[in-house]
Design a protein that fits this description.
Blueprint lengths: L16 H4 L5 H20 L2 H10 L3 H13 L3 E2 H8 L3 H13 L3 E5 L7 E5 L1 H23 L3 H14 L3 H4 L17
Antiparallel strand pairs: 1-3, 2-3
Amino acid sequence: MAMPCAILACVQATVDIGKGRRTRRAPDDELVGRIHGFVKYMLHAHGDDYAKTVGELDLSLTQLRALHVLAYETEQTSLKHLAEHLGVSLPAVSRSVDSLLQRGLVTRVEDADDRRMKQVSATPAAVELVERLAELRLAGIEEFVATLSARERARLGSAMALLAERDEIASRCLAPPRKASPSPRKD
């Protein structure tokens, strides 16, 4: 009796390592090293709940990125545009979307103008998932901030305020919470 065989096609991605490298100036090395250390610390020391949840969800990085784009940046987009936005091939984004579709996290419909094209959008469950993951990230950051001394908090706040003036960062910052309006006095 012959055993059924599964044929797996492996696509090997080749990357020109030198292509993505930027030349750093020696004075930047210390700053780059400090930022790298801080990001690693935040991801490892204050990101366990996020990492555990993502691991349990068994979502790839491409799937997570696609969900963020669909939940926050565009209501509906073509697979081609999503692939270009994520910097992955059309087949790769198509496979990712297929998996997300099976999980009920995206919808896929034919484009009204061009039936050969497919449009994808996030479901309410996907938006809820992305928001839950963002809350886990924020909880880790809040946990870290709680460990800072008043001096560290003030200095970090000043540095972050300066960076938050950049458009590409400001657009991703949370709006400060609104202060509650004082209740009318009842004398």
